[in-house]
Amino acid sequence: MVMRLRDAARPHWTALAMARLACAIALILAVGRAMASDGANADLWIEAQLEPDTVYVQAQAIYTLRLYQAVSTRELAFHAPRSAFAEIRASAGEKVDEVTRAGRRYRVTERRYLILPFASGPLPLTDGHVSIQANSTGKSAERRIDAPPLTLAVRAIPFDRRGEDWLPARTLTLTESWQPAGLPLKPGQALRRTIRIEARGLSAAQLPALQPDAEGFSVHPEPPRLEEREDEGGIIGTREQTWLMVPRQSGDLTIPALRLAWWDTLNNAARHADLPARTIMAMTSPATAASPAIDVSAQAISSAPPVSPPLAPSAAPVNAPASGPALITTFAGLALLAMAAALIWLRRNTPYFHFRRACRNNDPLAARAALLQWRGKGLPPAPASLLAIAQHLGGQATRTELGALDRQLYGPACTPWNGQRLLAALHAEHPGLRRTLSRMSHSSRRTPRLATENPTRMA
Question: Are 81 and 127 in contact (CB under 8 A)?
């Protein structure tokens, strides 16, 4: 009887032992897969870095992707992270190096992106990845390697800095040059003043327009020159503008000092850049001094010899009463022509005209410059980037085409940009845009002082 009980229990014991052994084998295999998927032991893995991890609104952060590869690959492509509240630019070029990790030698390909947030709060950066064709075990397969998600902490503009120009930069310099440098100014001689702003960590579009005071001068600004370049610290934006200054009176004329406030992101402190006051001695002729203003554009016309009216034949007496209606008709026609010419000139100097011409010429740089003329013109919020304009305007087609323009400017080389699509999208989804841009341009001309362009301020 005892032997039968033992024989009956043997199958149950054998089944229990086999189940425990199977669990142990499964755990061993699971641990092996976890170790094989670790980055230090994989053939291909990716690393993401964010520097710094905390910035102010509109300040610059650098997002870096590094691909480590121990096998040969082809058709390597980096893809930037995504965010609805930041402008993301691909830095020019890639950096290639070699490192050794856990006894294995890896080829490292690095790509950097500039992050310019325009809203405060946590800013998730997701969907950064690399797509490749990898050769492993003699087979070629397309692979996608996702970067770990990162979050950028974006601080709001300090309360005491709101309502002013907000320029968060690593460094900012303000310089000027004068031509001619010698003084005093001779009668009829004009003075050229050039002011240059250079900021590390800001794009050229974020730099404000300046209007220096110059009492006693007729001031005629030239179009500004905007440039951008990059170094290891990120983007460097410059804005340079020249003013032609013609004295309206003689004597000592004082040009006041100029101050530009900015925020030092390295030391987290308010700074300002200054240009000193300058006294100009001007010697003008009595005719020039008596004139309230000098129109530089009219100087070429006034220098032409006067045209004498044709003389009537002496045999034909002039009938003075009959010439009155003819003179009135002539002057009325000239006035209408002058008004038509002025309307055509105003129409061709609106942001809409420049934007439409850029789209028809498929010129992405000129189209971006025309759109960014919104900044500081009283349209809330003042956009600081193409993506901010897309977010502000709305419309699926508008967002798509503005995104295509942004990729054309800052992404890798691709097909030529088609500006007609963006123009058609804006006309279809925003029919009142043309009138808004025209009113904005005309009101800016009636302003006695050029308004400073304020970047987007979002708390």
Answer: yes
